[in-house]
Amino acid sequence: xxxxxxxxxxxxxxxxxxxxxxxxxxxxxxxxxxxxxxxxxxxxxxxxxxxxxxxxxxxxxxxxxxxxxxxxxxxxxxxxxxxxxxxxxxx
Length: 91
Description:
CATH architecture of the largest domain: Irregular
Order of helices and strands: HHEEEEEH
Strand order of the largest sheet: 1-2-5
Structural class: alpha+beta
Largest sheet: 3 strands, antiparallel
CATH topology of the largest domain: HU Protein, Chain A
Number of helices: 3
CATH class of the largest domain: Few Secondary Structures
Oligomer: single chain
CATH superfamily of the largest domain: IHF-like DNA-binding proteins
Strand content: 25-35%
């Protein structure tokens, strides 16, 4: 399911306009995005949690040339599925 399909489903299941559903979905995503950017943990019960993981820089190798390259430190978003979601998938 992509974002437009989510908006369509929300509109159909709740008898609201597609514009209203888009507003809800975009507001929800923007709120999560802002919280993650400010390095807050976002937890959605029954689904999982989002947070930022910090990775240190390191020296690696270019697999094609074998040349040693320096990989800069970085931050990446991380999602951990919640217990209820895991149980739902495995039942």
